[in-house]
Design brief:
By secondary structure, the chain is of the alpha+beta class. It has one domain. It is built from three helices and two strands, in the order αββαα. A two-stranded antiparallel ribbon has the order 1-2. The longest helix has 14 residues. The protein is globular and about 30 Å long.
Length: about 90
C-alpha cells in the first residue's frame, strides 16, 4: 500500500498543502509524511491530505539531525511530545 499510486498521490498532496517544514521539529527539508493517527493503529485510505503532515524521515533533519518521524513512531502526538521533553 505504501508504494501504491494512491499513497504516492496522498504524499504529494500533503507536501502541496503543507510544504516541506517538519511539523515535529519545525525545520525545513521534510522528506516523509507523518500519519497524524499512527498508521500501525489506524489504516486510513490515504485520500485526504489532512491526515498527514511533513516530517523528517530516515535521513534525519539537516538542522537538528533528529529522525523525527521515526522518533515519534506509532505513538499519539501527545505521547511523542512528552517523550521529547524528557
Amino acid at each position: 500500500m505504501r508504494n501504491g499510486h494512491r499513497y504516492r498521490e496522498w504524499r504529494r498532496s500533503v507536501f502541496r498543502h503543507y510544504g516541506r517544514v517538519c511539523h515535529l521539529c519545525g525545520h525545513a527539508g521534510a522528506t516523509d509524511v507523518d500519519h497524524l493517527k499512527p498508521h500501525a493503529h489506524f489504516h486510513d485510505d490515504h485520500t485526504d491530505y489532512r491526515t498527514g503532515r511533513p516530517a523528517h524521515g530516515v535521513q534525519g533533519c539537516p538542522v537538528c539531525k533528529v529522525k523525527c518521524n521515526q522518533v515519534r513512531g506509532d505513538q499519539a502526538m501527545q505521547d511523542a511530545h512528552e517523550r521529547e521533553l524528557d
